[in-house]
Amino acid sequence: MPEKTSSSETGLVLRSRVDEDGTLSLWLADEPIPTPGPDEVVIQVQAAPINPSDVSLLTAPADPSSLVAGGSAERPTLQGKVSPQRLPALAARIGRDLPVGNEGAGKVVRAGENATHLQGRTVAVFGGGMYAQYRLARADDCMVLPEGVTAADGASAFVNPLTALCMVETMRREGHHALVLTAAAAGLGQMLNKVCQEDGIGLVNIVRRAEQVKLLRGLGAKHVCNSSDPDFMDQLTQALRETRATIAFDAVVGGPLAGQILNCMEVVAREDMTEYSPYGSPVHKQVYLFGGLDPGPTEIERKAGMGWGVGGWLMPWVLGRLGPARVKQLRERVAAGITTTFASHYNEQISLADVLRPQMVERYAKASTSGKLLVDPTAA
Amino acid sequence: MPEKTSSSETGLVLRSRVDEDGTLSLWLADEPIPTPGPDEVVIQVQAAPINPSDVSLLTAPADPSSLVAGGSAERPTLQGKVSPQRLPALAARIGRDLPVGNEGAGKVVRAGENATHLQGRTVAVFGGGMYAQYRLARADDCMVLPEGVTAADGASAFVNPLTALCMVETMRREGHHALVLTAAAAGLGQMLNKVCQEDGIGLVNIVRRAEQVKLLRGLGAKHVCNSSDPDFMDQLTQALRETRATIAFDAVVGGPLAGQILNCMEVVAREDMTEYSPYGSPVHKQVYLFGGLDPGPTEIERKAGMGWGVGGWLMPWVLGRLGPARVKQLRERVAAGITTTFASHYNEQISLADVLRPQMVERYAKASTSGKLLVDPTAA
């Protein structure tokens, strides 16, 4: 990989644009390093993960078979075609050169007059545009990582850790006492298992393969149900009976799973009913959909009476409703546990240019099964 | 029809039982007229409608083809078989002789010492057991009908009127400003149209047939969308654009309709977005399912981003959360408008014994299309 050719006053920024004709373009732009305002800093980004949520700005809108690589080895480009049916949903981004990369970490290299205490510190940031060599940030948005923690350690300090913590917050605020997670063997699930063990909260893990059951049991998980087993519904009902979980977070989303969870919750809730009602138990049973591993329709076979809900769930929106004091507590908990409870693991470190290479696109497009990639923009 | 043979101290009560072996039995029991406590009254029931919600206690659990009539002309019985798959959901009613009939009206013939002001009044009651010649009720639960209003006028003073009013309450409490109703040409929909016109609330009506569009327009409805039209989605999106409705009440429930409503709401919400988000508009879009005209699974094709919810909705549960002061106001509004805004219409008056006749079962099982039946227990 050659040394970067940009001058000391510019840095590379990965940008993504969808044009009116449905062309998706990804490229590395050489842009001036921003000058921070009084309450801002400039971070030299050293590590930024590729999360499933990043792929929606990278390549997801385009038909995968339409992607064509271009440019040079050092400044590769990628183009693809968005299908006409998907285009209306993208109206708000047509013609805009969007930055990409939800979260990451790096070193503060420039600081405004009210942020000089951050100069030289390694900080983590959330909010887009982290696939870049330099990124402007509000000082308040920086999570200062403890001494000795590297940018790679802290690169994933927001999406998974705050998603796990916000699930627990939602559970509590909506009056539930234990929870269910699907696709529970992934990084997020491993984190949520640690959080629930620390906090003494009942967690029912749903996975699809026997080795995932083993993995989670090895991490101390008490309740793991395998949806590929013929007695899955019985396993799930029993786990719900033991935990009294009445809220679930589902990353699979398409297919019958959300409805199956509700129906098993209702079976347990009805065991407590002393009077018959054709509307079932009034205990509210909730499934929040936060992913989309299966893009098909969510099919709810309604056997759960009338006391149920299904809906979308998005961590930043939940965070926005918690209020700054609680958010600060959650962020401090993440920073303190960034190399333990909230540690992330990566299969490979890649450069900014690598993000645009077709063989990498293939890998991060199926992120859940092939392990996580970490982008190091200093290697571009 | 012969005169009733019960003594003056007993009355007929329609009862329904499911046995452990899955046998459903319906019969008329001759039971002592109850003695009211100090705060109670006994109502001679004169009119009680058969609502879709009653059918679930009558014949719905059994396979329709299994129903067999028995008994005498005067004391008919009906038996049927519940499929083994449905039986677990009925566990709480196994072996219990349940009364039937959610609402009705009649004359107070006995009153406890604190309820003598009700003696001789025509009152409406909600809460089950109205398919009976006499029914005990708490004085507080009686809606006293205005002078000159008959029991037949007041028989449906609860289910449809309070459902319509509770939909508006839910809309307001959850921060929405206009609403959508499906299967909107039925009695409930006609009532909700009158309520929304009185209160100046935007209402989008969804129906399935051209004559239903005409019917609702004749009642002054501004927004009526026909789901059988090829441009239904465009009609719906335009009506949502004009009303800004972000909450819907869906009686169809099975199939893609709930998801289609959410997706059209999202199209409108995105028109207000100035920045692109792969998660769509943060405006919350809600569909409550309160019926079940289509028993198939609810299929949600997720194009509505993350700001949406679908869930069960049950009027009595909503009423329970409103608090007694607000409930009193709603009941007073219904009583005042019982022959106008909240008037119900019936195709035929039948006796208690008629409820158990197979040709009647067929009619009320498809209630939505064949018009409403009114039971007059004094004719049994």
Strand and helix layout:
2 copies of one chain form a homodimer.
Chain A: E1 10-18, E2 23-32, E3 40-49, H1 52-58, E4 68-71, E5 76-81, E6 98-99, E7 103-111, E8 122-126, E9 134-138, E10 143-144, H2 151-154, H3 159-173, E11 178-182, H4 187-199, E12 202-207, H5 210-218, E13 223-226, H6 232-243, E14 247-250, E15 253-255, H7 257-270, E16 285-289, E17 294-300, E18 308-312, H8 315-322, H9 324-336, E19 348-350, H10 358-365, H11 367-370, E20 373-375
Parallel strand pairs in A: 11-12, 11-14, 12-13, 14-16, 15-17, 16-18, 19-20
Antiparallel strand pairs in A: 1-2, 1-6, 2-5, 3-7, 3-9, 3-20, 4-5, 7-8, 8-10
3D architecture notes:
Two copies of one chain form a homodimer. By secondary structure, chain A is of the alpha/beta class. Chain A has eleven helices and 20 strands. The first copy, chain A, has helices at 52-58, 151-154, 159-173, 187-199, 210-218, 232-243, 257-270, 315-322, 324-336, 358-365, 367-370, and strands at 10-18, 23-32, 40-49, 68-71, 76-81, 98-99, 103-111, 122-126, 134-138, 143-144, 178-182, 202-207, 223-226, 247-250, 253-255, 285-289, 294-300, 308-312, 348-350, 373-375. In chain A, a hairpin with a 4-residue loop joins strand 4 and strand 5. In chain A, helix 3 (159-173) crosses helix 4 (187-199), helix 3 (159-173) crosses helix 8 (315-322) and helix 6 (232-243) crosses helix 7. The first copy, chain A, starts with 9 loop residues before the first strand and ends in a 5-residue tail after the last strand. The model of chain A is unreliable at 1-7 (pLDDT under 50). Chains A and B meet through helix 1, helix 7, strand 17 and strand 18 of A and helix 1, helix 7, strand 17 and strand 18 of B. Strand 18 of chain A pairs antiparallel with strand 18 (308-312) of chain B, so a sheet runs across the interface.
